[in-house]
């Protein structure tokens, strides 16, 4: 791992009394373990061919993954007037000072090739009448760059094609209805596989010379989220508890326009609706965004989220009005949004859609280098649970699907032919899960005190609630991950990108990343490493 990155080290402590598991790896154990079956996990499994691998999915393959819900699409510099340099530059600007320019460049450069890979796998990206890819322009992109499928069905189509390919691939073994609940580590500190729990609560160990975490985001730790409930930051907790470095956990992106229709998770009303001219209005029908930002509805995502948060905090409901901009076309151009509205009893051709900000994407994650290596031997990370430095303090829209496929291909290139070291006898710790009522309490505290607008009293309160829940239930994965986010948010005394502190509303002069590790320091103090 590179140790020369500019940043802080922050250490958190946790008093654990977990169950202990032991395992022995057979000498011929060469099967790679992929934990999580979203875009990162599926694409990685396919690219590893012919190397044998096993992929773990908590649900039937292809389901319970944010990837399947993606509405916008995948960004890549495919337009004749666009270049990877411009894509990388837009990524760096969006990330508010914390994007690693080298990784932004790498992802932008590999993007077009990876889109072509997806086309080969059967993804039917939208085409122009002359057969070129139809690319749409999204906020903060300087060129049309987003490859879509049938309007807002990109995630469903991509995951459909990949799920079929994985099921047909002879080198991939699939374990469905199981989740990883802990990692195994040998005496030399090498990660040696995972402890799995099936749908009936039965545990087992799975040893492997290389484990790759692809478990997605952390939205499920917040009461209001667009993520599937399986996205609860499991990978962060599992990796952190064995000493992995976690980067920038405080940086969470809140989507401004999740539908506020009493559903959990909240259905998303994609940003593209505002791109097409939909406006944000109050209950009286009056637009309000111009009061907050000169770009009004097209202001950056975090600015729009804070404006809506401010209206809601002052007791004024907020609605998205698509009627004048889209009229009847919403049915065909945004079928996912239309169906979600109709299911909630709202006909967007005639009614406005109630919206609220929701936890949408985790920029932070397990620190990863440009080849997907974490700071622990034998452990790689890919997709939203990783922090490569590509998203900084604020992700550029449609860059996350791109990052997942680019990094999956790089990890596969590294591991396909490599002579993997076998781990020795290993052991793993398994803290208890927290009961459902405690999880819901945690989610409410995180949404209320670690959300769109944060301050020291609120963050201190949520940390004290986590302490209390931990005293009652032990260091459950959800509590560990939530603590990482809240403690780093308290430690970052500035506002930057998706992290807004009302008590520190300005950015500090020098942007620094946060690195959190169980082992680096004894006390939760910050130390510049640059
Ligand atoms: C509604 C919505 C719309 C979005 N739209 C876009 C878009 O248009 N463009 C874009 O670039 N990004 C978009 N994003 C973000 C993007 O979808 C995600 O960042 C990306 O899909 C992450 O891929 P992933 O493979 O890392 O995670 P996921 O696709 O979430 O997959 C994670 C997998 O891990 C499994 N898992 C979780 N915990 C465990 C465990 N403990 N053990 C085993 N398995 C586990 C999950 O069930 C799932 O199978 C959107 C996100 C949402 C929620």
Chain-wise SSE layout:
Elements: E1 7-10, E2 19-23, E3 32-35, H1 39-47, E4 53-57, E5 74-75, H2 84-94, H3 101-120, E6 135-136, E7 146-147, H4 154-168, E8 172-176, E9 178-186, E10 191-198, E11 203-207, E12 211-213, H5 234-241, E13 246-247, E14 252-259, H6 272-275, E15 279-282, H7 301-313, E16 318-321, H8 323-326, H9 330-333, H10 335-343, E17 353-362, E18 365-367, E19 379-381, E20 386-387, H11 399-415, E21 426-430, H12 436-449, H13 456-473, H14 477-491, E22 513-516, E23 527-528
Parallel strand pairs: 1-22, 3-4, 3-12, 4-8, 12-19, 18-20
Antiparallel strand pairs: 1-23, 2-21, 5-7, 6-7, 9-10, 9-21, 10-11, 13-18, 13-22, 14-17, 15-16, 16-17
Helix pairs in contact: 1-4, 1-11, 2-3, 3-11, 5-14, 12-13, 13-14
The structure holds flavin-adenine dinucleotide.
The site of flavin-adenine dinucleotide has 41 residues, from helix 1, strand 4, strand 9 and helix 11.
Spans where pLDDT lies below 50 across 5 or more residues: 1-5, 521-530
Report the oligomer: single chain
Report helical residue fraction: 25-40%
Biggest sheet, strands in spatial order? 20-18-13-22-1-23
Q: What's the tally of helices?
A: 14
How many angstroms does the end-to-end distance come to? 15 Å
**In percent, how much strand structure appears in the residues?**
15-25%
- Mean pLDDT, all residues: 92
Structural class based on helices, strands and sheet pairing: alpha/beta
Number of strands: 23
- Cofactors, ions, other ligands: flavin-adenine dinucleotide
> Biggest sheet, in brief?
6 strands, mixed
The shape, in one word, is globular
Rg on CA atoms, Å: 22 Å
């Amino acid at each position: 791992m590179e140790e020369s990155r500019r940043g802080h080290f922050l250490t958190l402590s946790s008093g654990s009394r977990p169950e202990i598991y032991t395992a022995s790896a057979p000498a011929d154990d060469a099967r790679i373990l992929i934990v999580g079956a979203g875009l990162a996990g599926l694409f990685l499994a396919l690219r590893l061919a012919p190397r044998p691998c096993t992929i773990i999915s908590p649900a039937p393959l292809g389901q319970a993954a944010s990837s399947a819900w993606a509405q916008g699409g995948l960004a890549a510099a495919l337009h004749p007037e666009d270049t990877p340099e411009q894509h990388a530059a837009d990524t760096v600007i969006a990330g508010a000072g914390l994007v690693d320019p080298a990784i932004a460049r790498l992802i932008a450069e590999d993007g077009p090739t990876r889109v072509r890979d997806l086309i080969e796998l059967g993804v039917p990206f939208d085409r122009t009448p002359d057969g070129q890819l139809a690319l749409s322009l999204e906020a903060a992109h300087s060129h049309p760059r987003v490859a879509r499928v049938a309007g807002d069905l990109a995630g469903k189509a991509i995951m459909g094609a990949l799920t079929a390919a994985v099921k047909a691939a002879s080198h991939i073994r699939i374990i469905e209805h199981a989740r990883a609940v802990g990692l195994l580590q040998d005496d030399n500190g090498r990660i040696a596989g995972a402890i799995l729990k099936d749908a009936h609560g039965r545990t087992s160990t799975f040893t492997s010379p290389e484990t790759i975490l692809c478990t997605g985001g952390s939205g499920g730790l917040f009461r209001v989220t667009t993520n599937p409930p399986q996205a609860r930051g499991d990978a962060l907790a599992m990796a952190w508890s064995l000493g992995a470095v976690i980067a920038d956990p405080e940086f969470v992106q809140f989507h401004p326009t999740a539908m506020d229709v009493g559903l959990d998770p909240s259905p998303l009303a994609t940003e593209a609706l505002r791109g097409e001219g939909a406006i944000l209005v109050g209950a009286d029908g009056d637009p309000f965004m111009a009061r907050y930002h000169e770009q009004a509805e097209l202001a950056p995502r975090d600015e729009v989220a804070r404006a809506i948060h401010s209206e809601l905090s002052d007791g004024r409901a907020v609605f998205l009005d698509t009627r004048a901009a889209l009229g009847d076309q919403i049915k065909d151009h945004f079928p996912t949004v239309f169906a979600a509205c109709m299911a909630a009893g709202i006909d967007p051709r005639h009614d406005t859609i109630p919206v609220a900000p929701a936890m949408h994407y985790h920029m932070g994650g397990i620190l990863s280098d440009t080849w997907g290596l974490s700071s622990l031997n034998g452990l790689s990370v890919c997709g939203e649970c990783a922090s490569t430095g590509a998203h900084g303090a604020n992700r550029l829209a449609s860059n996350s699907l791109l990052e997942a496929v680019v990094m999956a291909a790089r990890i596969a290139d590294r591991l396909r032919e490599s002579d993997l070291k076998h781990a020795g006898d290993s052991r793993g710790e398994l803290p208890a899960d927290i009961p459902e009522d405690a999880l819901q309490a945690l989610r409410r505290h995180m949404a209320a005190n670690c959300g769109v607008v944060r301050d020291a009293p609120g963050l201190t309160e949520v940390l004290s609630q986590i302490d209390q829940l931990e005293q009652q239930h032990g260091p459950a994965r959800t509590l560990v991950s939530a603590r990482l986010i809240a403690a780093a948010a308290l430690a970052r005394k500035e506002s930057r990108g998706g992290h807004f502190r009302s008590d520190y509303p300005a950015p500090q002069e020098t942007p620094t990343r946060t690195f959190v590790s169980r082992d680096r320091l004894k006390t939760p103090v910050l130390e510049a490493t640059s």
